[in-house]
Amino acid sequence: QVQLVESGGGLVQAGGSLRLSCAASRSIVPFNRMGWYRQAPGKQRELVATITSGSSTNYAASVKGRFTISRDNAKNMVYLQMNSLKPEDTAVYYCNAYWGADFWGQGTQVTVSS
Q1: What are the φ and ψ backbone dihedral angles of 77, each rounded to 5 degrees?
Q2: Cβ atoms 66, 81 nearer than 8 A
Q3: How far apart are CA 51 and CA 82, in angstroms?
Q4: Buried b / exposed e along 13-24 (16+ C-beta atoms within 10 A)
Q5: pLDDT, tens digit (0-9, with 9 covering 90-100), for 21-54
């Protein structure tokens, strides 16, 4: 079990940047994969980026080159640096941890205005 708490969302203009943080209630070292997903109104939740325990990363094609996922095992934190934001990035962003099962945070709203 793990509790995940996201922060860092907000309102930003197109072209701007935000850094999302995910604080875990326990060590994230054992988790095979940590990641960020997002869900826009009327759409299904989709993968944004993941990072494995070995720090291999994977990105959705729509964010590759603009977003960077990272993890700090010592602080039990996962981050998502989002640059060159677009209105289509507007969504609720969820932190995810996977270790035999998926664990989710409550989400943080990101709104990008044009």
Answers
A1: -125, 150
A2: no
A3: 15
A4: eeeeebebbbbb
A5: 999 999 999 998 999 999 999 999 999 999 999 9
